[in-house]
Amino acid sequence: MIRYALKCEHHHEFEAWFSNSTAFDEQKARALIECPHCGSVQVEKAIMAPMVRTSEAVESRQSDMRKAVAEAMHRVRTHVEQNFDYVGDSFAREARDMHEGLAPERPIYGEASRDEVRELIDDGIPVAPLPIPAGEAPKPKTLN
């Protein structure tokens, strides 16, 4: 994929992605590229600074992304721990009882084996793993 800075006859600037360098020429010749601002099909490539990535910039960006993901996972986990009932090893039974109408519905979390999770999913009972960010151990819980 290649990104081009483009400009229409009315000097509106915009960007577009193409599968390769000849794709722009082919689409322009067939009037398939349209200015998102005014609809003009009279577009040209605009002057664009080359994008140079250093390994340091890539590593920094990846580190920032890892931090953002870990923070989001932590927020999700904290929300669940503060607002859901912890049911420990009884999670599969509690989830099934709520699904079958044998127990009042409420937000719960706890532990379940792979087999228990597989059975819940096979029976149409929605479950999802609780994210644990790397380096963060699950907190010991007491049953409510």
TrEMBL record:
<dbReference type="InterPro" id="IPR013429">
    <property type="entry name" value="Regulatory_FmdB_Zinc_ribbon"/>
</dbReference>
<dbReference type="Pfam" id="PF06676">
    <property type="entry name" value="DUF1178"/>
</dbReference>
<feature type="domain" description="Putative regulatory protein FmdB zinc ribbon">
    <location>
        <begin position="1"/>
        <end position="48"/>
    </location>
</feature>
<dbReference type="InterPro" id="IPR009562">
    <property type="entry name" value="DUF1178"/>
</dbReference>
<protein>
    <recommendedName>
        <fullName>Putative regulatory protein FmdB zinc ribbon domain-containing protein</fullName>
    </recommendedName>
</protein>
